[in-house]
Design a protein that fits this description.
Structural class: mainly beta
Number of strands: 57
Helix content: under 10%
Oligomer: single chain
Radius of gyration: 27 Å
Largest sheet: 4 strands, antiparallel
């Protein structure tokens, strides 16, 4: 999620990191010219530029000329000389492309700290190693004092280098040797070292360090700044503010509704900024006594799974940030719900309960994946834990009333079934013994699962046996859909061709060679058998001929990666995209019947009754409010009466 960059005049830059694809990360840069009130996306998709596995933006810096430097986790340094409008790689001479920090010295020199190759100094457009006597090259952060530079490392503590000299360890009194950040006060009299085991201070130019004891001691401290008489730190679970002596600490989280604070920044004129891990950017104008979110136009969430319920509620499952809920009329998002969970399955049952599955492995390799059920449109969730514990719950299908079949991975079996709406589960025997990353069911009751490295498997409802249908390579299968003709489409993750098709109930799967991507993250089949597929690097692809030809339909979406697709009851297509949340198609992809307020396919007296109740405020379902806005001006009111009357009298 966002962390602020450096400030130049009234301009702020913020960097984000998010999941771009399965086991792949990316990042973006945003810009504000009004101190964070509004943000504009100013970086193209770095992943598209570099085709790197990991382009999460780890650091931002701005030099005296206004050039913006972005340090990417797997694609080196990128520079913009025009305020973020255009970017170019700046990696000549850089010994490692995993850049952890970019910093500008008081002399306007640009330094980069790399993950495994130490420190580099930029000269023109070329980097040169600046590592004399630096014995730990796993560098993480940089700071400057009068006539010297400090670098923090992973496991080697802090090293100090006088101008033009060699590096030497500066760890006297420093017991935390894994550094996350170093802060130097404007006066140069106070240094703060943020480590994985607490906070340390130096008042003698890093000649010695002493611990600052507080509720964060023994746990990671991610960031710290000197606000004058006080110290403000971002820790793993909170923000803390000290007294003048640095011995008394109080939580400074009034209005800060996020978890770890990864970055803190002074913005001048009494403004402070805090970048969180999971809920964007916050600003304080009263020395951290209170905070307000400032995320208008700032995005950093990746939607992995998406449901638009029959009632018109949008439920988005995100990467490591749980579930968020809105509705098709644009209500503010509520969340995170089930925070910190990686949501890997979402589905609505025919009886309108919502089901979710998460993918979580706790420290120590402990599986913590669960199936969840919500009976209030996604606001509250109940874990359905009767059965073996797994790491991942990946899919749901609903064969009959109150019957749920659930696919799992990294547990005792890949498929289980419940006839009690998920309250009690039993293993579907005989089990295939493979991980299941997705689940689909045809009208005959056959089940299909996609695995990791074991191919696609089909469970025959008639013989109660499993058959391996192929694609047993290193690839994962993340999506399977079946159209009205019984044709099976399988979406893969990278190592084999993006989408495969079978006209024989899964037998004889063959690649759709016209498909322009090796990634088929999400496949959606419309009632008329039109196909939409979300890819990693080619945006959303559309086919109206069973996959023989494809058209890119990604206009309006700023990135190329789409991992979730859903058809809403309003006929619109909804897409969950990497780092930018949820988008809706401008036009419906399934035609709607004007005046059909209850959604039964015709316009009758029941629709008129519902329409009247919407106008009176007695009907609150989002889908019915949406359908009552017949003139599409954003609100159902008396201006829609004429259109409703015409729809009723002229069906």
């Amino acid at each position: 999620m966002p962390s602020p960059g450096m400030r130049i005049q009234a301009t702020l830059y913020a960097a984000t990191g998010y999941q771009h694809g399965y086991n792949k990360n990316a990042g973006s840069v945003f810009k504000s010219t009004d101190n964070g009130d509004h943000w504009t996306y100013v970086s193209a998709d770095f992943f598209t530029f570099s085709n790197s596995i990991n382009t999460r933006v780890r650091s931002l810096a701005v030099n005296a000329s206004g050039d913006v430097f972005a340090g990417l986790e797997g694609a080196g340094v990128w520079r913009s000389t025009n305020g973020g409008a255009n970017w170019s790689a700046l990696n000549t001479g850089l010994g490692n492309l995993r850049v952890r920090a970019i910093a500008i010295s008081p002399a306007d020199e640009v330094y980069a700290a790399t993950e495994t190759a130490g420190v580099y100094l930029l000269s023109g457009t070329t980097w040169a190693a600046a590592n004399p006597n630096l014995t730990n090259l796993a560098t993480r952060c940089l700071a400057f004092g009068p006539g010297y530079i400090l670098v923090g490392t992973a496991g080697g503590g802090i090293f100090k280098r006088q101008s033009g000299g060699n590096w030497s360890a500066a760890n006297n009194g420093l017991t935390g040797l894994f550094l996350n950040a170093i802060h130097a006060s404007a006066s140069g009299t106070r240094l703060l070292a943020c480590t994985d085991s607490g906070l340390f201070e130096s008042n003698d130019d890093a000649a010695s360090w002493h611990p600052l004891v507080g509720p964060f001691t023994g746990s990671p401290v991610w960031s710290a700044i000197d606000t004058g008489n006080n110290i403000l730190i971002g820790a793993g679970t909170s923000i803390y503010l000290s007294d003048a002596s640095g011995t008394q600490w109080t939580p400074a989280i009034n209005g800060y509704n996020a978890n770890a604070c990864r970055t803190l920044l002074q913005g001048g004129a009494g403004r402070l900024f805090a970048g969180s891990f999971d809920n964007g950017l916050f600003r304080s104008t009263d020395n951290a006594q209170s905070w307000s979110p400032i995320n208008e136009g700032l995005y950093g969430r990746t939607t992995l799974r998406l449901v638009v319920s029959s009632k018109g509620f949008i439920v988005a499952g995100t990467n490591l940030q749980g579930i968020f809920r809105s509705d098709i009329n644009g209500a503010p998002w509520t969340g995170p719900i089930l925070p910190t969970r990686n949501i890997f399955a979402l589905a609505e049952s025919p009886w309108s309960d919502l089901f979710a599955g998460n993918y979580t492995i706790l420290p120590g390799g402990i599986s913590d994946g669960h199936a969840w059920r919500s009976s209030d449109d996604g606001l509250n969730w109940t874990p359905l834990d009767n059965g073996p514990v797994v790491a991942m719950v990946s899919g749901f299908v609903f064969p009959a009333s109150q019957q749920v079949i659930c696919s799992t991975a990294w547990g005792m079996s890949s498929v289980r079934t419940s006839t009690s709406n998920g309250d009690l589960w039993s293993l579907l025997a005989p089990g295939p013994g493979n991980e299941a990353y997705c689940l689909a069911r045809n009208p005959q009751g056959d089940l299909f699962i996609g695995s990791e490295g074991h191919g696609v498997l089909r469970y025959s409802a008639s013989s109660q046996t499993w058959t391996n249908l192929g694609l047993a390579t290193l690839s994962q299968q993340f999506s399977i859909v079946i159209n009205s003709q019984g044709h099976v489409f399988v979406g893969n993750d990278g190592n084999v061709k993006g989408v495969y098709k079978s006209k024989a109930n899964g037998d004889s799967l063959s690649p759709l060679n016209s498909f322009p991507s090796n990634f088929g993250y999400a496949i959606l089949c419309l009632p008329n058998d039109d196909l939409y597929v979300g890819t990693l690097e080619k945006g959303i692809q559309y086919s109206n001929d069973g996959g023989s030809s494809w058209t890119t339909v990604n206009s309006g979406i700023p990135v190329s990666s789409c991992q979730a697709l859903a058809l809403g009851p309003d006929g619109h297509l909804y897409a969950g995209v990497a780092g930018f949340g949820v988008y809706r198609s401008v036009q419906p992809v399934v035609p709607q019947v004007p005046g059909d307020i209850d959604g039964d396919g015709d316009v009758d007296v029941v629709d008129v009754d519902v329409f009247v109740n919407v106008l009176l405020g007695n009907e609150t379902l989002p889908i019915r409010i949406y359908r009552s806005d017949l003139n599409a001006d954003g609100i159902p009111n008396s201006a829609d009466i004429e259109s409703m009357t015409s729809a009723f009298l002229n069906p």
